[in-house]
Write a structure and sequence with these properties.
- By secondary structure, the protein is mainly alpha-helical.
- It has one domain (1-76).
- The chain has helices spanning 2-19, 33-37.
- It starts with a helix and ends in a 39-residue tail after the last helix.
Length: 76
């Protein structure tokens, strides 16, 4: 009985912390389409910085730190 109450308390805490996570998903493949097509040839002296894509976005709410940024790859 006591173990069940402890597990219930820990489970409730974990659910509340999970619901507090803010996630914002942005698809950027269509915005950076031209940059992805232009790739340097192997052995060329072109810098990687020449093929970067900058994407600006707004968030719906203020986010306190720390902020972690992840990206997702599909069919890789």
């Amino acid at each position: 009985m006591t173990i069940g109450i402890i597990c219930l308390g820990i489970g409730g805490y974990m659910i509340s912390q999970s619901n507090a996570v803010f996630e914002h998903v942005i698809r950027y493949d269509s915005d950076c389409e031209n940059k992805q097509q232009a790739k340097p040839l192997p052995g060329s002296k072109v810098k990687v910085e020449d093929y970067t894509c900058t994407l600006a976005f707004d968030l719906e709410k203020d986010v306190r730190g720390p902020v972690y940024v992840y990206y997702q790859l599909e069919n890789f």
